[in-house]
Amino acid sequence: MLSIDGLCVSVGTPDRVLDIVRSVSFDIRAGEVLGLVGESGCGKSMTSLAVMGLLPRPEAWIASGTISLDGVDITGLDPHQRVRKRCAGVSMIFQEPMTSLNPVVAIGNQIVEAIRVHDPDVDARLRARDLLDMVRIPDAELQLNAYPHELSGGMRQRVMIAIALACRPRTLIADEPTTALDVTVQRQILGLLRELCADLDMGVLFITHDLGVVSQLADRVAVMYAGALVETGGVEELFRSPMHPYTFGLMAAVPRPAERHQRLHPIAGRAPKPDEVGEGCPFAPRCFRAEAVCRSGEVPFDGEGSGHRARCHFPLRDEVLP
Amino acid sequence: MSGRSARSQGSWLRTWLGPFASRPLASLGLLILLVIIAFAIFAPWIAPYAPEHIEPVDRLDPPGAEHWLGTDHFGRDTFSRIVYGSRLALLIGIGVVAFAMLTGVPIGIVSALFPGAGRVLMRVVDVLMAFPSLLLALGLIVILGQGVFNAILAIGVIYLTTTARIVYGVALRLREESYVEAARSMGAGTVWMIRKHILPNMISPLLVQASFVFAFAQLGAAALDFLGLGAPPDVPSWGNMLAESRIYITRAPWLLLYPGLMIVLTAFSLNLVGDVLRDQMDPRFRELVGNRQRR
Amino acid sequence: MWSYVFKRTGAAVATLIAASVIIFVFIHLIPGDPVYVMLGDEATPQQVDALRTRLGLDQPLLLQYFYWAVSALRGDLGTSIFFGAPVLSIIAEGAETSLLLASITMFWIVLFGVPIGVLAAVRQGSWIDQGLSGLAMLLASVPTFWVGLYLILVFAAGLGWFPSSGYPSIFEDGGLSNLRYLVLPSLALAAPNAALILRLTRSSMLDVSREDYVRTARAKGISPRRVVLGHILRNALLAVVSAFGFTFAALISEAVVTETVFALPGIGRTVVQSILRRDYPVIQGVILVIVCLYLVINLLVDISYRFLDPRVEFE
Question: What does pTM read for this prediction?
């Protein structure tokens, strides 16, 4: 199980520091898909990079908090250090399959490279072929010698997944892996991830801004806003009755076919930039339920331990809303 | 409070001079260039002796009180000749840059806007670029004869080709830009488009190109002078000074050091300034122009 | 793939032909009657007529060009006015020196330019990087003949480690040890070019290190050294290698001056002397050969690029 506790990430220079991830905590259990949702710039990618140990140095760093894999503290270690300490159980796939593979090396060798890091003795080429089969790439033997530019976006993303699976990870982080792909390909990849999660008993952290994708794929959902986690819970419960006004606003903003000729309901205002976040709840300036207490001091989580809870003084509870 | 024009002028200065503030080395380069320009303009007042002034008694004197940088085999004061040499250096630099820009820019723009003529023109440029640069200059010197003006032309042709290529590339991309298409669809004439859209966008890359061309022109001119194919022997150019002192370098190493050092400092400062300017350019232009420099 | 080779070769040949036209025409651009230009003003009428007929200068220009071009293809580049010997043999004499000089220089350039560029990139922003980058820019600003003269002053005249001029062939007495005559000249020639390759390597490495696939490589957990060598450098070299053809042209150009400084019996020095002696057949022949060589080198670099970058499409 991957546990993130109170993770804070900052960027900038020694003179000018911006907090872009503010005390984020969640767990990812084996065989479970956790969807991390939020709009662009809310800090979800930075969170995932921090968990992976890939924060771009020296501009970004983990200010505080811990990341532990099955009880072992891996905070602040980059992937190579984790391999050395034998605690490399987290893999990641990225958003841009078109540019995420080395263009001058055959994909077989790129997978082999990932395998050999963790398993120097195994027959890497054979295992690479098995991995290609696992991600449903046809003609695996042939494709081992293919170059990335010869493959489509969907195929490349599958290769990325194969590379990520090379080390038999306990947890896979997928940062918007389908955003750059066609809708039909998207469904295939999502289906693949779902199956792998179950077959390999692997935990998946799925990052996206697309609520539709989350509702199909995730078991649990965590919602981020302006660097902070505002709500977590099981997918059905969260979609059925969101507790945090922001989550509610997100769902209300989704256009519905039934309301075709009516106005859309966006959330008024815009998300704050990291240097614009003030005291108190970051959503307060735009929140229709905000009161004075919301604008100062820490906002605690309301709700039970690992069930459905929101970071709000006035969470919505099955109320009748306009 | 000053009006808008003053403020925008101030920010223009800040854009181009600002980056020097944080880069001491580049600022030093700028300072060196200013000194050289001062040398050129105020030569008669700065140089203690006339550049042709001969003192046979003091031949091959090492640097000392009377002759700060020593004398050459004729007894001419090195420092004075170096000061006057900066005039030639500036002349060559300005001449080459001006020639390259005045010929290269129109060729590049015309080639981009009129594809038919463009194909032919760029072919010619390609053929010219098939000649290694100094060889091209040498060939032109053979036809034109020696001399400072001919050296400017000969070296200028080299950078005409690179400038034309760069301008062609930039103009082509700009032509594809949507705002140019929009202007065209509104009936904008070609000349207007050039003036309003293309030229202003060229200023940044051309400015960077100019500083590098200026730098390489120094090296090219020095090489031509050294071979005896550039400035006439009596002209006090740094390259000539090196050529003349060649046989005396073991006896009078200062004759080798100072003129060469001037060439290096000039070219180095220009390269530094060019680098800073290039970093200042909008990233979009950097990818339009690329990094190829020709010597 | 072969269609690409043919197309590229065709383009190179076309360029060569166009360049040859320019080279041919240039002698006719020199002010004055070419024959008097070649023989000087003291020539007797008989010499003038003889040369005029021999060179076919009484024929139409186009015909002259064809004669010249066809002869050139057969290896006959005319006869030197100064030496009276075939131009081709004069070039051949200088070939060994110049080719060896260029090769050794390329060796220094790659040896110093690439690894130090990698080092500067890997240590970007540090004192090492700033120092090396500054040094590179300084070296790129020095005239090769000045470096050459200084090398002579220090290492030849001063320390006596290397000879200061000349070059006896390695096929004569001394054998391979004669290569020491080429050490100082090649270092002088290499200095500014190595500096440029250093800067190119550095900037190429920095550009590549920002690419997404480098992040993927790091995510795999492979060692930083593997990331740098196997992923970053491997891709950065593409830009560096494609600059080699162009570096070679700079070498040829500057070798002209370097050979003069070190009195090397190479093609570059032949060019300069021929210019000073107004030996036009030699000037024409040498420039033609050099341009041809440059185009061939560029062609080879372009074609070999395919083996480095599998993305290059052959059309």
Answer: 0.85
